[in-house]
Amino acid sequence: MAPQSRDLLKDSIKEGTRENQHRFQLDRIKVSWTAILTLAHFMYLLVGAIIFQILEREAESNSRNHFQLEKLNFLANYTCLDGPALEKFVKVFHGILRRFNGIYGNSTNPSNWDFSSSFFFAGTVVTTIGYGNLSPSTMSGQVFCVFYALCGIPLNLAFLKQAGKCLTVHLGRLKRGMVSVLPYKTLAVSLFFISGSLLFLVIPPLLFSYVEGWTFSEGFYFAFITLSTIGFGDYVVGTDPDKEYIALYRSLAGIWIIFALAWLALILNMAARVIEIVAVLTYPGLKTQEAEEDVSEDVSSGSKGRSEKTSNMENI
Fold this sequence. Notes:
The chain is mainly α.
């Protein structure tokens, strides 16, 4: 082999090695950033759960005791039920029930502000689901909830965005086009959709239906209303006072919500891109119109910048 050919081969090998090292460093940075966001997100939920538990659990316990005392007084003092007595009892009952979900049960019933429930509540705050069945009642809890949401919602959005990027990267060329004439890309999209649907929209509703005593349609309804962040609050897991749940039941449900939201956000983004592609294929003039609008915006912004520069020079 000639010396010149050997030099070219060495240079190409060095260049390829540098490219691989650079790619490896970028992948490591992406993984590190994803790990940092994931850790920060769950640490934020853990801290929020602990603080909400500290702020609200005592108030809930006091309200439960107050309700039990009112009930005992009612039963002891009113042997013959009359209108005013019933109205007073119903008023007390309604006021407490409106502020605390499920405190009308016995004092031995699980707290709505134990760690698992607080973790679940923190997840519904940062994801903006907001079922409405449980909310802070103390002033300190309400103030903390406001600032917790102000910081937690952007963190959750950043986490979902990064999780969506990771899913897209692992799907390879799906990043360049969701719909293509190449069969393997369409197959990859189908497999991604089917596997995600099974993992997030089929298996969890089955488990919820089994634990809560719902039908599958009710479990699926709860899952979709939750993941779409509509959050009506008519179906919420872990709220039946007559059932005994495992300690981490609602915490696991909160973790399911976080990761399922990332998957559903990517699916909705893919659907939006498909609609855009179909619209462009159906009406080819739309793409030309968008390009013309972009050019006109660039020209107007450029002329505005030049005019501002000219006025500044004249002022000088």
